[in-house]
Amino acid sequence: MTRREQMGRLPLITDAALQIFVVGSGASLGREGAPRQFAAALGDFGTSRWCLTAQDRQILLACAAGAGLGAVYSVPVGGALFAARVLLGTWQPRVLGTALITSALAVAVAAPVTHDATQLVWPDRRLSYLMAASALALSPVALGVGLAFNRLMALAHRAAVTTSWRLIPEIAAAGLVTGMCSLWWPGLPGNGKSILTVILSGEPTLAAAAVILVLKPLLTAVFLRAGAVGGMLTPALATGAAMGSVVTLTINAWTDMTLSVPAVALMGAAGVVAITQRAPLWAAVFVWELARPPWWLFLTFLVVAVVAHRLSILITRRRNQLAADVA
């Protein structure tokens, strides 16, 4: 999409359909890639006969992909920022304007189906402004979890099955492992939305949150290793939310403080996604739009995401400097 070359529409649509099937069958993968691919393929079909420059076509296809994400999750600003920042990596006003228009239109068109409802239901709870202080403390933890998540997925991708005859039995074996784990932790199958729903609707136990924090990324890596294809966004969200729950439940159990599990869980989700997607502002906006909690919580999401992302950049620079000194 971003390489300005002809897009294979049929393979893209076929891949998207297979992603929906695999995730719908319980694979621990995200399904957010499918609507983006469908939208990009349809956008390519619609614009292929127009007299557009390569850059204009690239912008429209990225905006179509972002609009697909925005429509499915009812996140118009998140869809626009995904197109501009994650796919195109730019702040150009022309790109931002196009992305906002296409994403807003896509959300409006999908409203009769989605009812413009948030993906996550925010509980009506009293919140303390102590959340703002906890954002800074949570950032290094989010950084560590995000880097570990990226490392694990990279290892799984490199070792992924490529032999066609092995794909079906290995994916089936990964599904069997996930199904067995779901006997004790029912939220593990699927893209991770059920985990987010449980965390926001009712506080999980510390043990359950800790198990989910470990097993969710592991099962996602197992499916990638087996050769399945899917998104990493919602598994990263679920992992970050589990991390936030573990931190909050530990603090509530061992100190006199009482922090909101849903609020800190979403802060953790924003921090981890900021690392995995390398887009802190988009991560904060996307997480806020998913649940639409009180507006000031967006600031805490942004603090966690930005600080974690900046720490990641500093660590990378330090590693590169040490490598250069050794060389």
From TrEMBL:
One cellular component term (GO) for this entry is: chloride channel complex
Q: What keywords would UniProt list here?
A: Chloride, Chloride channel, Ion channel, Ion transport, Membrane, Transmembrane, Transmembrane helix, Transport
Protein's UniProt keywords contain S-adenosyl-L-methionine:
no
Q: List the source organism.
A: Mycobacterium noviomagense
Q: Name one GO molecular function term.
A: chloride channel activity
- Pfam families given for it? Voltage_CLC
**Name of the protein described by the UniProt record:** Chloride channel protein
Q: List the transmembrane segments.
A: 59-83, 95-115, 127-147, 167-185, 232-251, 263-288, 294-313
**What is this entry's stated membrane topology?**
Multi-pass membrane protein
